Amino acid sequence: MKAIILFDSKTSGGSTDKLIDSIGRKLAETGAYVEKAKCKSTGDYSFVKEFDLVIMGAPIYYLLVSSELLGALLQSNLKSCLEGKKIALFLTCGSPELMANLLYLPQLKLNLIGSTIITEKIFAPNQLSDPAVIAKYVDDMNEAYRKAER
Ligand SMILES: Cc1cc2nc3c(=O)[nH]c(=O)nc-3n(C[C@H](O)[C@H](O)[C@H](O)COP(=O)(O)O)c2cc1C
To answer: How many Å lie between the centroid of ligand 1 and the Cα of residue 59?
Structure first.
């Protein structure tokens, strides 16, 4: 399986950077080929077509999904390049999960109507560097990927 992690964060070396490195490492340990790419709202996402699984996520700043990822979904060719792909979503934020599910995840999902979202996860601050939580996210993603393949 070839996976790409598409992410955004305003904080270089911050919690999202560390999280995606942990996700990528764990997924690679399960045999996947993994790359990562930081989003730009005006980017060309044709390269996404080479991948089977697209893991997509970003932090929340001031109630909004970080702007380059949201912008890429709204303004670039990303959405069309996601056609037929399996998508795993994640968000990093400081809010409780219920609020994040109601307020933040829909910002991504409303821009992904018609896409195949196989899993989604809100990472609370205390979960960001918890190996067990990250391992479970990756295991759930692998299982959901296999199910969606059938
Ligand atoms: C300026 C700023 C604004 C934030 N606004 C929100 C917010 O509105 N809702 C929320 O749940 N978390 C908010 N957070 C928490 C971040 O989403 C969370 O700490 C995230 O892990 C930061 O990722 P980063 O280290 O990659 O920047 C905010 C953090 C910062 C620094």
So the answer is: 6
Phi, psi of 28 (to 5 degrees): -65, -35
The model carries a pTM of 0.96
CATH number of the domain that residue 75 is part of = 3.40.50.360
User: Are residues 141 and 27 in contact, defined by beta-carbon separation less than 8 angstroms?
Assistant: yes
pLDDT digits (tens, 9 = 90+) for 97-131: 999 999 999 999 999 999 999 999 999 999 998 99
List all residues whose CB is within 6 A of at least one atom of ligand 1: 9-11, 14-16, 59-63, 92-95, 125
Indicate the number of domains in the chain: 1
Q: Is the pLDDT of residue 150 over 90?
A: no
Using alpha carbons only, what angle is made at residue 16 by residues 115 and 39, rounded to the nearest 5 degrees? 50
Range of the domain at 15: 2-149
Nearest CA to ligand 1 atom 3: 61
- 99 CA: nearest ligand 1 atom: 11
